[in-house]
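Re: Re: ligand-bound prediction request (bumping)

Still looking for help on this. To restate: I need the protein modeled with adenosine-5'-triphosphate bound, output as structure tokens. Inputs repeated here so nobody has to scroll up.
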Amino acid sequence: MSSQKAPSIAVRGVGKSYSGVSVLHDIDLDIAPGEVHGLVGENGAGKSTLLKILGGAIKADAGGLSFDGEQVTVGSPRDAIKHGISLISQEGALVPALSVLDNVFLARWSHRGGLVSARADRKRLAGLIETTGFTVDPDARVDGLPIGVQQQVEILRSLARGARVIAMDEPTAVLAEHEKENLLALIRTLAAGGTTIILVSHFLEEVLSVADRITVLRDGALIRTLTAGETSPRELVGHMVGREIDVLYPDPQPVPDGAPVVLAARGLRRGLVNGVDLEVRAGEILGIAGLVGSGRTETLRLLFGADRATDGVVEVDGVTLAQHSPRTAMAAGVALVPESRKEQGLVMQRSVAENVALSSLSGRRTGPFVKRPAEKTAVGEIAKSVDIRAADPEAPIETLSGGNQQKALFAKWLLRKPKVLLIDEPTRGVDVAAKTQIHHLITGLAADGMAVVCVSSEIEELLALSHRVLVLRHGEPVGEYPRGTSPEVVIAAAFGSHEGEPR
Ligand SMILES: Nc1ncnc2c1ncn2[C@@H]1O[C@H](COP(=O)(O)OP(=O)(O)OP(=O)(O)O)[C@@H](O)[C@H]1O
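Reply:
Sorry for the wait, this slipped through. Here it is.
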């Protein structure tokens, strides 16, 4: 699909520091034309930094790049485009108020004009949409599109620019199961057509299935490059953390007999959500599964009062939450860890400590956030329990790696010691080792008596973590499954093709 053949890439001695702290050092890496090259490592290992250097989003302090043996300077995204490199970052790089069509051909406006080219662009986009199999409306405004579709727009833009090297930073983290498969198939097609793909992902099975070779980074250093067919998740994890670790999920403790119902919802309705009933007891973890658009996040928002239900009630300890809003929910001991760390959870310009402390303080308080020593200790303990790794704890949270931002979001709500914890996608963007830590944390909180409701697109994770999994389809509960149910049964229920009898 690319107009020119991809170059062979040689990265030599690349390094990067922030305020004197080295986050990437002396990276030597060769990538062959048309190769799918996986990049794995723990949160903060330097994967995004390396991709951003390749994509011209940041400048390396040391070393250089050559393409087909010739040194190239990629000092800006413009340089990268010129050399046929396209970066699809975690942050996204679309203009929200513009249409899909305008975003895809953004950089071309200065070179072309008039109706003829507009028509040609439209035709070209239709062709690309057909080849990729995406379902995107060219005239839709980008800010109204789900994040997975926005990513498709970025891929379309890369292809429209004739990218020969596409670097993708955790592209499947925002996708549902079948969308992931489609994207992996597209990656294979692109590579077969000669495009080089560099893929960062925490899903090791996925990287193993699609990549030719995989490079492991640890603490800013390149540890190994392995052939995908000759390695395993276990070996990769060993290199990632520098030791053999057990990445098995912990089992939740059984819910004690007679444990009281802490959270109940009866007949919840609003928009997509159409009659959700649920009960969660003290010490119990209820998973909510469903496809994108099944009403999972919306149900959590109704439970929290972020949206007010048009019908139905939410009860905590048997008492109906009147005037249900986040304020009344929090007063009753309910906390929500939202899906989007940027839009709903974190103040990006503030430090980890300030962000973690923020939730425990009244909204009216101004000035420095972390004052009381007891609070400082609590913040420190929680940040440690979820293993937030920041080079400088006082630095703004936007300078943390994506996975560490996710952990900070989680920590923020734990300081409130809620009675009911609602969690949306708790391990998105989190590395395998940190994922088990978060699982231990959640099962530990439940063992201490918290009632937990957890939404996750990863069915296996949900089945491992929860006592029961409630499946939603088109906003309605369609079944409830105990631990030990096979993921296929739950997926079939989510799709509406029942294979197993729900309990
Ligand atoms: N602008 C910045 N200022 C200071 N430090 C930064 C900045 N950007 C990144 N870092 C630090 O560089 C290190 C590497 O971050 P990077 O985002 O490359 O990690 P990653 O491997 O992609 O992690 P993740 O899996 O969590 O996305 C981290 O310690 C991060 O805090």
